[in-house]
Design goal:
- By secondary structure, the chain is mainly alpha-helical.
- The chain has helices at 3-22, 27-36, 41-65, 71-92, 97-117, 136-149, 154-166, 170-194, 200-219, 225-246.
- The chain has one domain (3-246).
- Helix content is 77%, strand content 0%.
- Helix 2 runs antiparallel to helix 3 (41-65) and helix 2 runs parallel beside helix 10 (225-246).
């Protein structure tokens, strides 16, 4: 691996970490870039999990430091997510490169659409809705499968499920979300490792960039910043989606 690859991976990780803190969807940049750098789809998918694991360890530690946690509830949600994530990770190691890239391209387009047309979330306690809380459990299993299989944009899905089905505050949503992703990423990453689908050098450099980007993003507070981030992210995702479709 040459210095250009190291610099690119760190820059991509920095961008992904910054985006995850300010808007979400950082993997929608990191996974396609890893593929464009020549990694097989499964290897790119597995390698990205190293950065995801480190990022969420940091996030959980941050919530803990602020004494904002509910580990019992978060763990219960995680246990419903785990089976789906394990099945999804196994499935991801068995699909062809072309099929995976096609799925990824479609998901990227839907992420762009959701960024601009989804209902905005309001911090504070959400209004109670007439939705049975038990629906959260099959939803967690399904999202777990998606997270184990692809990961890209899974934070949006967890946010939607936890916020709308449980009617809890946005802060609690994020608190549970990072813990759940941390827990299911451990067996998912292990599956990718055991099947030889992790490139450690790339993953660790990407993770270093993600850690820096997350720290940087937390320090930056610019009026209208989220809108700018959404536009830049949308343009980048659309370009990568068309490149993925063009590689068939």
């Amino acid at each position: 691996m040459n210095i250009e690859h190291i610099a690119l991976l760190f820059a991509v990780g920095t961008a992904a970490g910054f985006i995850n803190v300010n808007a979400g969807g950082g993997s929608s940049i990191s996974v396609p870039v890893l593929i464009f750098m020549g990694l097989d789809a499964a290897v790119a998918n597995g390698t990205n999990r190293i950065a995801i694991l480190i990022q969420n360890i940091s996030a959980v530690a941050s919530f803990h430091k602020k004494r904002f946690h509910d580990y019992q509830t978060s763990l219960k949600f995680s246990l419903f997510t785990l089976p789906g994530a394990i099945i999804g990770a196994i499935a991801a190691t068995r699909v062809s490169n072309i099929l995976f890239q096609r799925i990824l391209g479609i998901v990227l387009i839907f992420i762009v659409i959701s960024m601009f047309f989804s209902r905005s979330y309001k911090d504070g306690d959400a209004a109670q809705k007439a939705v049975p809380n038990w629906l959260i459990y099959p939803a967690l299993f399904a999202i777990g499968f998606y997270g184990g299989f692809l990961q890209v944009g899974v934070g949006f899905l967890f946010m939607a499920a936890l916020y709308h089905l449980l009617s809890i505050s946005l802060v609690k949503v994020n608190m549970h979300k990072v813990f759940i992703i941390l827990i299911y990423t451990i067996p998912a990453l292990l599956i990718f490792i055991l099947t030889g689908n992790v490139l450690w050098e790339y993953g660790l450099i990407l993770a270093a960039g993600t850690a820096f980007g997350g720290w940087w993003g937390a320090q930056v507070s610019v009026k209208g910043g989220e809108k700018v981030i959404r536009i830049v992210l949308a343009v980048a995702i659309i370009i990568m989606a068309f490149k993925l479709f063009g590689s068939f």
